[in-house]
Design brief:
The structure holds two protein chains of two kinds. Chain A is α/β, with parallel strands linked by helices. Helices cover about 45% and strands about 25% of the residues of chain A. Chain A starts with 7 loop residues before the first strand and ends in a 5-residue tail after the last strand. By secondary structure, chain B is α/β, with parallel strands linked by helices. The chains are: A alpha/beta, B alpha/beta.
Chain lengths: ~500, ~210
């Protein structure tokens, strides 16, 4: 206490003798008296003008305003701490004085030591309060400037704080919101609590604002715990996720479009093969039909005519099937996950590629494990991956000078029930640095390639909960494998 | 086309790996009375070995392994002169040029019109007959030529270049009478009626010698 800073003090006392004694006492203990007055009204004015560190205020004063009223005004206008002086204290006075939030009482007459300690306590308490106020202001400024909505409630779920974002999202201005129950202004529905709504884990919900607009939000709740461990309220942080959801949906659409375009490119590379495949049955239809007419002529052969007619029907269906297969690949439908047989998915592609591979002089084999290999997936997207990998493999073989021209697709069910599809080629293979980057977007080793094919393949397999990777094949070439989870639950 | 009686002994070779197409070509060609042999690969046809009969080949240019154009090269190397009709899908213009350069008699695009194919088959077989007839004639000529003595061959060569008996006698260091004698025997053995005949024979013999390398 000896080291206490010198304070600037105002004395409000209507008894001039007492006032003089106090001034002397204060001087003895090292403080400065900046003003002395006997009226409440003057005290308020002087406090504003002089800005003392502390006011010693007699409760009973001359004139219309007593010490308690004056103290309340001073506190409201200047935040200056007030210590009451009184000779007696009846219950009513003490109750009124308490409402003015005094920083201490001094019962007259008082001694130096007593005065000194009360002043020190008052100044200390005032400094602590100021720090708290600053902290609160800083806290509020922070919460007001962040992009999320913040609402704080007391232990009875009444709103004690709402930041501008929360005002905008709920449609409730702060003045009207403070004191309301949370349920009245924060109307949420469809809350998905995720893993049991643990504190700090965002849950998703729909918030309906005061004017009836509904939008998706992420929210986080944290209880405010006091020193005794009891909950004294909660802080709620929430954000509007509609923009993020729109972006995510747009991104998904863009990816689907890209995947489809890549598929069309792959199909386009097969055009010559497809034209050949469609022409074969057409050719057979034309020849059989012509033969049928001739066998029906004179001299005729009805058995031959009948056989030719039957072949026309069969060849017509064969053409139809090929057209259906191409259309299935070219369709622009939303991704549709279903249980499908991997073998069947691959088998239906073989007629589209086999002739072309044969023509390119490739030794193409399909080694499909007998039986159904069920997975959950989008048939067209998986076909796109297989076609893309096969077409890359064929290019790799054509680009090299190796005598072997082996290309294969293999299906196997693994012990864990997963289905593994492997596409191998006997080309020059991939060196280690390339294998690392081959799935990166825009990475290509081909002249004129845009480097999206494998990147799209990987994103398709990822979306199926599977894995796609490349590895060297022995003695030469590359092997691409992808594993899809079994459809069995 | 009404197949002529002599065409019925000719055979059309169909080579196509697509069973549906192969069977349809087979029935269509048979429906007009042609003999047909159908093969799934060029190798199967080559394994069969040559036959002494007029034929033509109907070939799909897109065959597994070695394609139709490579097959034409094989035929040339094996001295197989059978005319080839190449059938192809669309968008194969450069290939059609190559096929024709390699000696295809006709290049048809799928789906082929039956009449077009029959016309092509008819002219290909006619051409094969001609080739075979000429080959036969050439073979007779060769036999005649082989029956000449060394001296007669010398006289043959000089007569064919248009020299008079006197010039030939000087060239060979013989008397004009001896030359006349050799010349008479040589003309009889070769079956030549006059000098113009003999000059043509000399040309054909030279041509045949060139083609058989």
């Amino acid at each position: 206490m000896e080291m206490m800073a010198k304070a600037r003090i105002m004395v409000v006392e209507d008894d001039r003798i007492v006032a003089r004694d106090i001034r002397e006492q204060l001087g003895r203990i090292g403080h400065t008296v900046v003003a002395v007055t006997h009226s409440g009204e003057a005290a308020v004015d002087l406090a504003v003008a002089e800005r003392p560190d502390l006011v010693l205020m007699d409760i009973r004063l001359d004139g219309g305003m007593d010490g308690i009223d004056a103290a309340q005004l001073i506190r409201a206008q200047c935040q200056i701490p007030v210590v009451f002086l009184t000779a007696y204290a009846d219950d009513e006075t003490v109750r009124r004085a308490s409402s003015a939030e005094p920083f201490g009482y001094l019962l007259k007459p008082f001694e130096d030591l007593h005065l000194r300690s009360v002043i020190a306590m008052a100044l200390h308490k005032h400094a602590a309060e100021r720090k708290l106020r600053e902290s609160e202001r800083r806290f509020e400024a922070t919460l007001s400037s962040i992009g999320d909505g913040v609402i704080a409630t007391d232990e009875r779920s009444r709103i004690t704080f709402i930041n501008p974002v929360a005002e905008r999202l709920t449609g409730w201005p702060r003045q009207q919101a403070i004191g309301q129950t949370l349920a009245a202004i924060y109307r949420v529905s469809d809350r998905d609590d995720g893993a049991g709504a643990a504190a700090g884990t965002p849950s998703q919900a729909t918030l309906t604002s005061r004017d009836g607009r509904a939008f998706p939000i992420d929210e986080t709740r944290a209880p405010i715990i006091d020193d005794a461990g009891a909950s004294t309220g909660a802080v709620l942080v929430f954000s509007d996720t509609s923009e993020r959801r729109r972006t995510a949906a747009a991104l998904q659409n863009a990816q689907a479009d890209l995947a489809r375009m890549s598929r069309m490119t792959t199909v386009g590379q097969l055009t010559a093969s497809i034209a050949h495949e469609v022409n074969q049955p057409l050719m057979a239809v034309v020849m059989n039909a012509d033969a049928c007419l001739k066998w029906l002529g004179d001299p005729g052969n009805l058995d031959e005519a009948r056989a030719a007619a039957a072949r026309i029907v069969a060849e017509g269906h064969r053409a139809g099937e090929i057209v259906n297969r191409i259309r299935a690949l070219a369709r622009n439908e939303p991704i549709h996950f279903d249980v499908l047989d991997v073998n069947d998915m691959i088998e239906s592609l073989l007629p589209l590629v086999r002739a072309d591979f044969n023509y390119q002089g490739l030794n193409f084999t399909a080694d499909l494990q007998p039986g159904r290999l069920s997975v959950v997936g989008d048939r067209v997207q998986l076909q796109q991956v297989v076609l893309n990998l096969l077409s890359n493999a064929a290019e790799a073989i054509n680009a090299c000078q190796n005598a072997e021209r082996d290309l294969s697709v293999t299906t196997r069910q693994l012990d864990g029930g997963e289905v593994c599809i492997a596409i191998e080629d006997s080309g020059d293979g991939l060196d280690a640095t390339v294998i690392e980057r081959i799935f990166d977007p825009f990475f290509t080793t081909k002249k004129g390639g845009i480097g999206m094919g494998l990147s799209i393949c990987r994103s398709i397999i990822d979306a199926h909960g599977g894995r796609l990777w490349a590895e060297p094949r022995s003695p030469r070439g590359a092997r691409f494998r992808f594993v899809l989870p079994s459809s069995a639950v | 086309v009404n197949p002529k009686p002599e065409t019925s002994v000719a055979t059309v070779i169909v080579i196509d790996d697509d069973e549906g197409v192969r069977v349809s070509l087979d029935t269509m060609l048979r429906s007009v009375g042609l003999r047909v042999e159908a093969y799934a690969s060029t190798q199967a046809y080559l394994d069969r070995g040559p036959r002494d009969q007029p034929e033509c080949i109907v070939l799909d240019v897109r065959l597994p392994g070695r394609n139709g154009l490579d097959f034409q090269d094989d035929l040339a190397r094996l001295e197989i002169t059978t005319p080839v009709i190449v059938i192809s899908g669309h968008a194969d213009v450069p290939m059609s040029v190559r096929a024709m350069k390699a000696g295809a008699t006709e290049f048809l695009t799928k789906p082929v019109r039956a009449q077009e194919l029959l016309d092509a088959v008819e002219s290909a077989i006619a051409r094969d007959r001609e080739i075979r007839l000429q080959a036969q004639n050439n073979a007779g000529l060769k036999t005649n030529f082989d029956s000449l003595t060394a001296r007669e061959r010398e006289v043959f060569a000089l007569v064919a270049t248009g020299l008079m008996n006197k010039q030939i006698a000087a060239e060979l260091g013989l008397s004009e009478a001896t030359v006349k004698l050799h010349r008479g025997t040589m003309m009889r053995k070769m079956g030549a009626r006059n000098i113009a005949d003999l000059v043509r024979m000399a040309d054909r013999l030279a041509g045949a010698a060139r083609t058989t390398g």
